[in-house]
Amino acid sequence: ELDPKRLTRIIAVPSSPLSFRERTDDLIRDTTVTLLIDNSRSMSGAPILTAAASADLMTRVLERCGVSTEVLGFTTVSMYGGQVAQAWQAAGCPQNVGRINALRHIVYKSADQSWRQSRMNFGLMLNRDILNQNIDGEALLWAKSRMQRRPESRRILIVLTDGRPSDSSTLKANSRGLLTNHLKQVIKLIEKHRTLEVIGIGIGHDVSVYYDQSIRVDDIGQLGSIMLTELLRLLKP
Question: For a Cys staple, 196 with which of 75, 146, 155, 176, CB 3.0–4.6 Å?
Fold first, then answer.
């Protein structure tokens, strides 16, 4: 277990020495953590910049603790449906057909990569061209499938988002609650099967309506320290 007294120093200087309590060292090393980041347009500016910096901080610290980490992003190929929406319109705009956009799921850091190998990738989040819509439910299923292939017995999924699922093209042709209800179903499935622990972090939003374990962050500048504090709590025996 990482000594709580050193947390403040680690946040300020990630290269500072760590201390461990040996009795729980093996338990920590049998853990994998995935950070799944909302790469939607509403995250532009300070939120996505801070998310990228927090991902960098988290992977550096946890790597030194022996915890494997993965950083993923989710968005859509187009802001307004692109070719999928065009095909839907050509078909006569049928209703209740499901998603009308192409997903874009991004691996910024795989669990098998080191921080040094992947650190330059975090800056790609700042590319406004990839920040489109957010279809959360399918992103969680994708992250879950990747985590279930890992050998670690404990799996922690942290979802970082600034609001509810949204895709304007999809919502034009379906019930307004389609994406939100699907997200709730996916989280319920994950929590029921207990194959991994899922925590939602809402930037300026309360996400407790979706996640049993959730944190609201109103001061974006505190995101990195809040994430590490929560991970420290989770890694306690």
Answer: 155
Where exactly are the structural domains of the chain? 36-235
Give pLDDT, residue 28.
Answer: 77
pTM as predicted: 0.91
Residue 98 in this model has a pLDDT that exceeds 90: yes
Architecture of domain 36-235: 3-Layer(aba) Sandwich (3.40)
> Is there a contact between 170 and 98 (Cβ–Cβ < 8 Å)?
yes
